[in-house]
Amino acid sequence: MNAVPDALPRTAGELRAAGYAPRPIAREIHDNLLAALREGRDAWPGIVGFSRTVLPQLERALLAGHDVVLLGERGQGKTRLLRTLAGLLDEWTPVIEGSELGEHPLDPITPASIRRAAELGDDLPVAWRHRSERYTEKLATPDTSVGDLIGDVDPVKVAEGRSLGDPETIHFGLVPRAHRGIVAINELPDLAERIQVALLNVMEERDIQVRGYTLRLPLDVLLVATANPEDYTNRGRIITPLKDRFGAEIRTHYPMDVGSEVAVVRQEANLVAEVGEPLLEVLARFVRNLRESPVIDQRSGVSARFAVAAAETVAAAALRRAAVTGEDPAVARPVDLEAVPAVLRGKVEFEPGEEGREVEHLVHLMRRAIAETARERFAGLDLRPLSDAVADGHLVATGERVPGAEVLAALPELPVLHEVAQRAGVSADEPAGRIAAAVELALESLFLARRLAKDSDDGTTVYGQ
To answer: Which superfamily, per CATH, for 12-251?
Structure first.
């Protein structure tokens, strides 16, 4: 966050003279989104794969000033999308200095701020709040109370001498404190139904009532939420009156193509070693195979976080292998994919009756992904010279203790190897590890096509006739 610019007004009088009239949050987002669309700016940084599906729907909802609920399976980027909404707010907005609710200096709403504004007039001090402070996020949990969301009587303020009927004894909850900002509630169906009722007035009448007080605060908030379809229909639900108050219900989805899946992994994964594009494509296809497999419980979904964790696991396996063999740089090879099924089998839900066969299914789907990637990468390339060389006695050993240079040294000089490397995006003058990764992919594809044999023992794999 940058420092508050010195040129901004510091009193209500200066603010009025500068033309800072109060503007509703829905109008502020509407104006800033329209400006971004007209200028061709990306209003949704970091959001991949939604440009033709989810984002147009969300933009229409925001331009209409609607509250929004995003409905989708786990790991589809719902929370990430909501957090980008803060970028549609003004970078700096004026608030009454010291006010609990961040009220506009020219439009106070609490009794204390109204009194201060009347007493000080144009000398009312003004502070400035950054857009990042105007986005409030709450994970809905069954133990969330009305006091947490709306507010309750503060016994400390009562003990200080105020009467119990004084509106200033109220401790405001999360929603009022987000006045003139965005409130995001994650996993809304997990919120108890009696607590959801407390949001009805906020969303329709745009005010709150606390206990028996006659105090009514005209709040200005944009309420957005996320929900999982399984929770939405079974374990929990959004009560009908609250669901009716959302202006838009938008379905999210997983990446719709391999390129988007790879882009998400590239963006989100913290890779401790180099993982080439072909291996990322393998992982992307692996995750897509999981989402289509009948042995996987598709109601819970296969999160994009699975692909990210898989890429990080492959990178970690490559780094460990490089430490053992002394290779530099550490480059992931297909042999490192073997670490994924065993490590990540707990991140997906299998259908009943598949107990004990989880790793078997994952290995099968991983091999399918490798075969599909190799078919795509090496389409039209004749790999017969490579398989003939191995059949003639040039056995190739790989494993966690075999450096890339040894993989290449086991083969004679073959023109097809340069083609293989080129198809994998590697040039002939690059480190041996990168070239070996491409060659291993070709060897594995030959094995999966039953044109080579493969024997594994004690961490070493040998490709032969």
So the answer is: P-loop containing nucleotide triphosphate hydrolases (3.40.50.300)
Q: Where are the domains of the chain?
A: 12-251, 258-464
CB 331 within 8 A of CB 318: yes
Dihedral sign from CA coordinates of 133, 139, 145, 150: positive
Write down the pTM of the prediction. Answer: 0.87
* Residue 64: both structure tokens together: 């209409």
Tens-of-pLDDT digits for all 465 residues of the chain? 568 888 899 999 999 999 899 999 999 999 999 999 999 999 999 999 999 999 999 999 999 999 999 999 888 999 999 999 999 999 999 999 998 888 999 999 888 899 999 999 999 999 999 999 999 999 988 888 888 888 887 776 666 666 655 666 777 889 989 999 999 999 998 888 888 988 888 888 777 777 666 667 888 999 999 998 765 544 568 888 998 999 999 999 999 999 999 999 999 999 999 999 999 999 999 999 999 999 988 887 888 899 999 999 999 999 999 999 999 899 999 999 999 988 888 888 888 888 888 889 999 999 999 999 999 999 999 999 999 999 888 999 998 899 999 999 999 999 999 999 999 999 888 999 999 999 999 999 999 999 999 998 877 889 988
